[in-house]
Amino acid sequence: MTDKIVFNVIQVIVVMAFAPLIKGIGTRLKENVQSKRGPSILQPYRDIWKLFHKDEVVSEHSSWIFRFTPYVVFVTPIFVALLIPVLTGYPLFFAFMGDMLGGGFILALGGFFATLAAIDTGNPYGPMGASRTRMVGFLAEPVFMIVFFTVSFVAGSTIPYIVQKHWVTPLANLFQPSHILMMLAFLMLIIAESGRIPVDNPTGHFELAMIDESKGLEYSGTGAALMKWGGAMKFFVLCCIFLNVLVAPWGLAQGVQYWEVLLAVPLILIKISIFVLVLVAIESSLAKLRLFRITEFLGAAFATSVAAMITDLFLM
Amino acid sequence: MSGQDLLLPLLTKLNALAGGVFLISAFGLVGIRQMLTCLRIYVFQSLLLAISAVILGYHHASIHLFVVAALTILTKVIIIPWVLRQAVGYESYAKREISQAINIPTSLLLAVAITIFAYYIAGPLLDAIGAGVFEKVNLPIGMASLLIGAYTVTVRGEAVPQLLGILAMENGAFFAGISIAPNLPLIAELAAAFYVLIIVLVVGLLAMKIHKTIAKTAVGEMMALREE
User: What is the ipTM of this complex?
Assistant: First the structure.
């Protein structure tokens, strides 16, 4: 029992410690593809460190929501990290608290507070970005729902630990059409949710074209550090759900020895790095969509997820 | 025999995967604005048809299905794209915005509704013929592709994507056909392959003629008759 609690804590520490690294690797690779040298992969750590040591400026017209939000954004991915398989292939101490739907709700809570905080200050760019994020969010919501329903329909459960076993026993399940199509739909969702290029440009500095970034413009000092760190952790957690539950449930610790759990750390980092490489390839080969074309992108994701659901209807 | 037992689930899943991607590429023909990408998606869909034919041919030990696969690759993957590229000039393919009567998100939703309808009408048919695992994948997806192809023909306002809609209908019919009639006579396959080629030639020549006359292939704008 104590082992499982310790593993759960290790899992959270891994998410907290390596999320900025993954962000740094992604930025560096993207710059490399554009024949630039790019910042060091440790740059996000330095940014966060620097921001923690700066003064925080809070508008006197803002309410408690503005001051409270960075903590919510920082804490929600940690809660999700308690529920999902990051390192181990078996449920840990806190895993009983929620399934994948629960994880989705917790992540949505962070997004909800970030939106409120962006509107709170009265900065003209904040509400614009916030309402755009909501637009992308409510278009993505049906896809999320259909993907989760398909998972529970095909695997017979929404508990991530049961779902990931279903895809590889027997191995032929990996080639199930619903599995492949669902992966495709979920990949499009991750791109939309984490503000990647066909939907949003994360490195853009032009406020009128921003979707996701403009929500954090008002933060400084500790608040900005927590928002940045929380955003990186959210991406890390989404990658863990995508890779460990849906795509490649290999490399997770099956035993209860400490060395097995610690060995799973480099494996998950390698897996996420490969996934980041794929994302960089997607981001570098596509152009950002105009705002009203995002409906088409997410409409395609929706059609894909529905196809995933109905191709399985008669195979049951 | 145990090898057979292991192989059958894998073949089933691979065939179903080909079917699922086949359906997605039918959606792609409705939902993509760029003409060249549409053509590539059609080629990809034909390739998936050939893959499914090979899997079914292996399962039924039927030489006819291998011939179907070979004919599909020869005509639809090699000859038809070549003919279409020759017939319609480069500037039509470089076009990135195909005009469409109904906007793309609505079209995609309608395509999803069409697919569900295809499954709905395929259900009783599958029960009636006592279908196996392959028919359960191929028949409804083939019907869905057929109906989505017909929908593409009605909404697209350009000659080449409309033609691709007709070809997607034919692909869908074949996709359903190879599962319910694996021993189709060779003459029927040959005839179908050549009819498709002739359709492509005729429509391609027509599109070329339209392009020469009005300098574009947007047939959606040709509403009124005119005396020359």
Answer: 0.84
